[in-house]
Write a structure and sequence with these properties.
heterodimer; A: alpha+beta; four-stranded mixed beta sheet; disordered C terminus; B: alpha/beta; Rossmann fold; five-stranded parallel beta sheet; four-stranded antiparallel beta sheet; 33% helix
């Protein structure tokens, strides 16, 4: 028998412990690496997208017909520097493919050309892309051009590539959220692995001392244990990685929709490199060794309770301070980590103390035993319980965020989508003519024209939306704050109290402007302030009449009345919101095509836009919800596994009660009460943490990440669900542990032998 | 339970276990009685079935065959509920170790045992003083010595005012001096209360202090 064999024999004796360790590692790695893999793919996709859109100007035909190969050939023959890009929209997991023409790229500056080599598998030759697409997948041809190019025929025009709003900040925030969830899963896994390993170390203490007495050095034992935990991490982690890839594939389609919807970026599926497998494994090994380092290297943490209590309070206070004072996303996440650590630490220190106090105050000795027994269980299961608490709090916070956002977003959509249909003005037709012809249609009851452009200001480039402030389609807008005299009052933007707005629209008609929440928060602008805008060659200064909510985009925006739009300033897009009197969308489209004398009329109906928007946001949060729910599942399963393993040292006391005359049913009843109390208490204690996390998400992280905040809302119904779920875990726990409390000759023999671990185990704990 | 009947009356008791593919007979046709007010030493080599017999007499393990009567009541085929009542109110059992709840103080252990036995007037301090554990009632089991723990276990057993005391090697893990203190406490209680006692032990000196001896051989034998 070698030293390794002697050490590993522990797991032959305790196979459940071995399985628990492997299962925790497997589930945790699968979850963590699955999300990590998706966020890595997303990062690559964003980077590829940035490269692909480096030249942000495209050639369009004035007659509205999409550009084709013939246009490319014609322009090249005229010596115009254009390059084609054929986008093949393949569904996930294959993802989007981009065909480019290396020869025509040569006329562009090298630095602005898409770097095909940097993204193998994403960019291919245009001919190859066309062949791959065939008739199976839709394609889209774009002709990129340098903005300064001259000699473009008059039937073409240059426009900025649509959808190139700077999304970097939003995308980074989105990915940072995913990374934070990954880190949470990793932290919970580390806690769980630590608790299993420390239990093993406690159980092996006598064997380790014996080995040292037989001449094996402490250092040699230590290195064997390092190898042991590394091997476990590699084994469980390796299997988990495979499962994680499968999970990532499962999520890819939904995630792709999120990226496309939010950022106009498709998810590119990457070929898994050796590094992409090794990096997470290495990370896992490091985290696992870190989690058990103090036990491996014999540094005993301070058992001095007052010192621990002070340290826990300090950790919590520092975390809260960081959240309140540091205005950066990284700071917020670091603050949350400290708050979680401090809160979890305080819970595991104080809950046993509270239970012991209850035990001391109980008049009934049996009740006193019951409280003290639960207290002992809390000490033993401190780490898995803390993990369950973190997971429950996260689920509560994520649910509150998603539910609040859902209701706020849907309300906002209702305000905004007042038209039945939306149409883009035809480029070939003069805008006013197009409007008049549209208004003259019998089926049109009301319409509202919108112009879009980009203005300059001292805050940089801003989106400008020009509206017809008298339009009935704007009546339902609500404002976060307003400074118009005679209005219903100024509401605090962060409080999100909407205010009525007829007087606001009158103010806009009189030359004041509106700004979105993003712009207000980013630059500290409030209703009543003045803002100076340069629209082409015209510079104007206007008072901000109100601040409005604008979800789902990061850019700052100013709304002006169309009367302020300078005549000589070209617009980027012109569209109409139309309320229909009668008839379907299809007949309206036919009438409009006739009126505008073009076949290229794109009509989007309200329901389609709403469905798309809802789908995008559903997908966005489906992933977050899924990860947080799976984290809760992981914590629940880990708690069950740990309790199954650890309960061996407590089961005798339930059996002793049977020796003393309680029936098996009565003792099972106590066990059920203990299971329910244990997980129920943890869920209740998790509630304040969940509320705090909700507040951090909506009031701190959202404004920093997306530029807008949400009203703080709580959902007691969901809290009840979480408490019920935790109680269910407690019940399952009791049911699983019940066989261990069956009184038997073997259990009496085992437990009444001298030096049995349970003999004087009042202070024994595993983590 | 009938007054005047022997405390325990066992007739033709059989018990065997399956060990791998082998059937091992531990107790075979065992017949004996424990008279009222007597102490009986249960002796025999390891594996002779001493602990098995105590388990059978407490209803934790059923016999394969045979009749058991406790104070005249036939309990061989009693329900688990009845056995729980007997263990709770009549039969006190003291093991070699782990007799106490580690999360309760010595005094609370005694109160708990008395509560389960339905003895409302349990004066934990009285029993602790009686066993020389004055002022240790607030201590937890891991804060006292092995001997003190075992005496606290006896205090618990005495506090329930048992009708029958079964002790399974109660001094087996103690040094000679402490073992003597514990044994003294047991015998004083037995003499004071007349509570019949079955004392399983390997110690011939301890066995010799009992009124009678029940000796088990490897295959299980009756009273010599």
């Amino acid at each position: 028998m070698t030293l390794s064999g002697a050490l590993l024999s522990h797991y032959r004796r305790h196979p459940l412990q071995f399985l628990a360790l492997l299962l925790i590692l497997l589930i945790a790695t699968a979850l963590w690496s699955g999300v990590w893999s998706l966020s890595q793919q997303a990062r690559a996709s964003f980077s590829a997208s940035d490269a692909a859109l480096a030249q942000r100007h495209v050639v369009l035909r004035n007659d509205g017909v999409p550009v084709g190969v013939s246009d490319f050939v014609r322009l090249r023959r005229l010596g115009v520097c254009v390059t084609p890009q054929l986008v093949v929209e393949r569904p996930a997991p294959q993802g989007r493919l981009i065909g480019i023409d290396a020869f025509s790229l040569a006329c562009f500056a090298a630095q602005s050309a898409p770097n095909a080599r940097a993204h193998p598998g994403v960019f291919v030759d245009i001919g190859e892309a066309e062949a791959i697409a065939g008739t199976r997948w839709p394609t889209r041809l774009t002709l990129f051009i340098d903005q300064t190019t001259s000699g473009l025929p008059s039937d073409y025009r240059i426009e900025q590539q649509p959808g190139t709003v700077a999304t970097e900040q939003l995308a980074d925030s989105f990915l940072l959220n995913l990374d934070a969830l990954c880190a949470l899963v990793l932290l919970i896994s580390a806690l769980l692995v630590r608790s299993v390993f420390v239990l093993g170390m406690t159980q092996r203490e006598a064997s380790l001392v014996l080995l040292q007495r037989h001449g094996v050095t402490a250092q040699r034992i230590r290195w064997h244990l390092v190898v042991e935990i590394t091997l476990f991490a590699l084994l469980g982690g390796g299997l988990g990685l495979v499962l994680g890839r499968v999970l990532a594939r499962g999520f890819a389609a939904g995630f792709d929709q999120v990226l496309s919807g939010l950022f106009s970026v498709s998810l590119y599926t990457q070929t898994a490199s050796v590094l992409s497998w090794l990096a997470p494994l290495l990370m896992l090994v490091i985290v696992m060794i870190w989690a058990v380092a103090d036990r491996l290297f014999e540094h005993q943490p301070s058992r001095h309770k007052p010192a621990q209590m002070t340290a826990a309070w300090l950790t919590l206070a520092t975390g809260v301070g960081v959240v309140l004072l540091l205005p950066s996303l990284t700071g917020q996440f670091a603050g949350i980590a400290l708050v979680l650590a401090g809160y979890g630490w305080l819970t595991t220190l104080n809950l046993p103390l509270l239970l012991e106090r209850l035990a001391r105050r109980s008049a009934s000795p049996l009740l006193s035993w019951s409280w003290s027994e639960v207290s002992a269980m809390v000490r033993q299961l401190a780490l898995p319980l803390a993990a369950l608490q973190f997971a429950a709090a996260t689920v509560i916070a994520v649910h509150a965020l998603v539910a609040t956002f859902e209701s706020t977003f849907y309300q906002w959509l209702d305000q905004r989508l007042q038209g039945d249909v939306y149409v883009q003005a035809p480029p070939a037709l003069e805008r006013q003519t197009a409007r008049q012809r549209l208004a003259s249609l019998a089926s049109v009851s009301a319409l509202h024209s919108v112009l879009r452009g980009r203005a300059q200001s001292r805050f940089g480039s801003l989106d400008v939306m020009a509206i017809e402030s008298a339009s009935p389609l704007l009546r339902r807008w609500e404002f976060l704050s307003t400074a118009v005299p005679g209005d219903t009052g100024v509401a605090d933007a962060s409080a999100g109290t909407p205010t009525d707005g007829d007087t606001v629209w009158r103010a806009v008609a009189a030359g004041q402007v509106l700004i979105n929440e993003q712009l207000s928060r980013r630059h500290g602008l409030a209703a009543g302030n003045a803002i100076t805008l340069t629209l082409g060659t015209t510079t104007m200064t206007a008072t901000i009449a109100a601040v409005y909510a604008d979800y789902g985009r990061p850019a700052g925006e100013v709304v002006i009345d169309q009367a302020l739009w300078p005549e000589n300033w070209p617009y980027q897009s012109s569209s109409f919101a139309v309320r229909l009197r009668s008839g379907g969308v299809e007949s309206f489209q036919q009438q409009l095509a006739q009126a505008w004398q073009t076949s290229d009329v794109k009509v989007r109906d309200n329901e389609a836009i709403r469905t798309l928007a809802v789908r995008i946001f559903d997908q966005t949060f489906a992933l977050t919800r899924a990860i947080s729910t799976m984290t809760l599942l992981l914590a629940g399963v880990a708690l069950l596994l740990m309790a199954l393993t650890l309960f061996a040292s407590r089961s005798w006391y339930y059996q002793l009660l049977q020796v003393w005359g309680l029936s098996a049913t009565q003792v099972r009843g106590w066990l059920i009460r203990h299971g329910l109390l244990l997980t129920g208490a943890i869920a209740l204690i998790a509630l304040p943490l969940g509320v705090f996390l909700t507040w951090v998400l909506v009031a701190r992280i959202n404004p920093l990440a997306f530029g807008w905040s949400l009203p703080m809302a709580t959902y007691p119904g969901f809290w009840l669900m979480i408490v019920a779920l935790s109680l269910a875990v407690g019940l399952v726990l009791a049911v699983l542990l019940a066989p261990q409390i069956a009184l038997s000759p073997a259990s009496i023999r085992r437990s009444t032998e001298p030096h049995h671990p349970s003999g004087t185990g009042r202070e024994k704990k595993a983590g | 339970m009938s007054v005047g009947c022997p405390a325990v009356s066992v007739t033709g008791l059989y018990k065997s276990f399956v060990d791998g593919n082998e059937q091992v007979r531990v107790l075979e046709n065992l017949t004996f009685t424990l008279p009222l007010h007597h102490s009986t030493a249960l002796v025999g080599p390891s594996g002779s079935g001493k602990s098995t017999l105590i388990n059978i007499l407490t209803g934790i393990e059923p016999p394969d065959a045979g009749a058991i009567r406790l104070f005249g009541e036939t309990v061989s085929h009693s329900s688990q509920k009845r056995w729980s009542q007997l263990r709770g109110q009549c039969i006190a059992t003291v093991f070699q170790d782990a007799n106490l709840m580690p999360t309760l103080s010595l005094a609370n252990n005694i109160r708990l045992r008395a509560q389960l036995a339905g003895t409302s007037d349990a004066n934990a301090e009285h029993w602790l003083n009686l066993l020389g554990l004055d002022n240790l009632g607030h201590r937890f089991p891991d804060q006292v010595s092995g001997g003190q723990r075992q005496r606290a276990a006896l205090a618990m057993a005495f506090a329930m005012r048992p009708a029958l005391l079964l002790a399974d090697e109660p001094t087996g893990s103690l040094d000679v001096a402490t073992a003597r203190q514990v044994a003294d406490a047991l015998f004083h209680h037995q003499q004071d209360t007349g509570c019949p006692m079955l004392l399983s032990t390997h110690d011939p000196v301890l066995a010799a202090r009992c009124d009678t001896t029940l000796s088990l051989m490897a295959t299980g034998l009756g009273d010599p």
